[in-house]
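README: folding subset

This subset contains proteins for which both the sequence and a predicted structure token string are available. Records are stored as plain text. Below is the entry for SnoaL-like domain-containing protein (136 residues), shown exactly as it appears on disk.
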Amino acid sequence: MSLDVRDVLAPGAPDRTRLLLARDVVFHSPVADYSGRDDVAHLFPKIGECLTGIEPLREFTDPGTGSGKDGAERQTVTTFTADVGEESVYGTFVQQVDANGQLTEATLLLRPLHTLTAAVSRMRDALSADPLPSRR
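--- output ---
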């Protein structure tokens, strides 16, 4: 089972996002790494506000990496397009989901660089206005 990137990065829904995340989830953004359900649940909707119109292109799933406690974790790579303001961006979202269907690890990659830079600037502004729970 994989999670739809549009659901994971849905804007304005941190409470719903929390339900998708394992307690000790780790997120690797283009800028930094974050851990813990509270911070990641705060970040994902903000990313969804920066990346609008997410359209998945392809999805590749490994049926089970065997790295989970019961060997049932699945890794999925989704490529997508989205917009950052007026600019288009190409992204890759790598997710690892446990046997309970909760996200345990995720990595977000974006290109081209000038659009990534615009997204980073928007996220910096969003997090200045509404900081991560661990930084309050």
